[in-house]
Records
---
Amino acid sequence: MNTLPQTLPPFALEPRFVARVWGTHDLRDWYPDLAIGEAIGEAWLSGDECPAHSGPLAGQPLRHIFAEHAPLMMGDVSGSADSPLLIKILFAQEKLSVQVHPDDAMAQRKGFPRGKTECWYALKAAPDAQVACGLKPGASLAAIEASLHDHTLENWLDVLPVSTGDMIFVDAGTVHAIWPGSVLLETQQNCDLTYRLYDYGRPRPLHIQESLEALRLHTQAGKIPPVIEHDRTLLLDSKYFRIEQHTLHGSLTHTQLGSAGDSPALSYLFVGAHPVSVQTADQQTIPWPANSLLAVPARCQDFQLTSVEPAKLIRIVARQPAAH
Ligand SMILES: [Zn+2]
């Protein structure tokens, strides 16, 4: 009975909700059954502690699933065998702190497996929604440091309007801040290092020295225009993740979702609240609750997605950075 499985079925993950000072008390449109006490800022969709919703792995936290099944989850494993991506939904009702994340090299100097490059896909945006992403031309380290003392850092931030469907890339080292007005699907390297540069006087710790060390005056950050491919729209292709949008109307198989020539890779699927059914080759139905992720291991049993109504499917594919 101890033979190791050759494949894993896809499985939904149960979100974990995180209270934040800038969060909301109203998630009726997203999670109608959720009882809310403190304001919720983040729904962690692929957090290390998020359990599998059903199937043979039901109840096991993602951290444990990676520890036990890394080769099945990720294909070829080089380097650390923990979960490479953290995907969240952010519900900002106020401005978040102005912050910066370290790159891989700086994070590894501090004893962490990886840095944090992230991106935001706008699931919803009010007409006045904005984010701050990067520094204006002419910024220098001295000017940024001085602006912290006289509370004028915002003047140096490049501010972008956000519309539903926008993809914004935020590479490590980019000074950034999420502002209210949008609900963002955030994909990031699974790293818990955030350096706060400025927090609007809120009583949370700042990390000025680390921020100044991590920040870069020029980065690749900004809005990424979509690229229409023959059967999908490419939203972002970065070193750490590739994000695509598919239109699901009728049925799509796991094989059809893959790109020709790709080696097997871990991916996550998101469809919001649309009713999409997931069936394995042996006709098992896999439950997939609204606004949760379907985890698709690199070594995955074939399955089919079906939707009667047209549904917008976001597919997030993990990339293994080359081993050095
Ligand atoms: Zn961030």
Note: Residues 13 and 52 are 5 Å apart (CA to CA).
---
Amino acid sequence: MTAKKADTTTIELEGTLVPLDVQINGRARNISLRVDERTGGIELVLPRFVAKAEGLAFVHEKSRWIMHQVRDRPPNVPFAHGAVIPLLGIDHEIVHQEGARGTVWVDRAGATLNVAGQAPHVSRRVADWLKGQARQEISARAQTYAAAVERRIRKIQIRDTRSRWGSCSEDARLSFSWRLMLAPENVMTYVVAHEVAHLVELNHSKRFWQVVDGLCPGCEPAKYWLKRHGASLHRFG
Ligand SMILES: [Zn+2]
């Protein structure tokens, strides 16, 4: 991220108060704005030479388009009985099985994610289960890919990051968002391949992309999916 500073406020558009996050970005060439799918707020990015007033005028100019996005965005999905969440991209309904033994289990045939225990714990149990699954699925892929490029992973962390799906440090520590468990499988695979490729090339050079391609041929659609739909993964839980 290259944002220099963020300033959060609200703006009234068509009679509705909408959260507004203003960022000054020295590398931006144009004013840009997007609607955050999770919060329904606006993210406005201003190049350094553009005054905030000019940015706000731009927001007002686009108010119809913005309010369209705000109202049409898909609703948030809590981890609760009856909610449908995508497990590696495949929809599963959360079914609370009160009195059942065990904690959380998947019924693939019925496409359900079953949760035992008491109702107030369903949400936390689903979240914990997803994090555990993410760790297993991601670690298995990461170890396979690391072996393929003959590198060692020092540590794999699973987190809930807002802006990055994965990262790789200079000392070979990989970090991933557990929300990849809700993305299509090829998207998880691509993100893991991407971060493992950084064990070879800690940059985004041509050589880096060759390594990614070697690990995960045909990953372009996954990259595109993330750009297009990645933000929607923050609607869950
Ligand atoms: Zn990268």
Note: DSSP finds six helices and eleven strands in the chain.
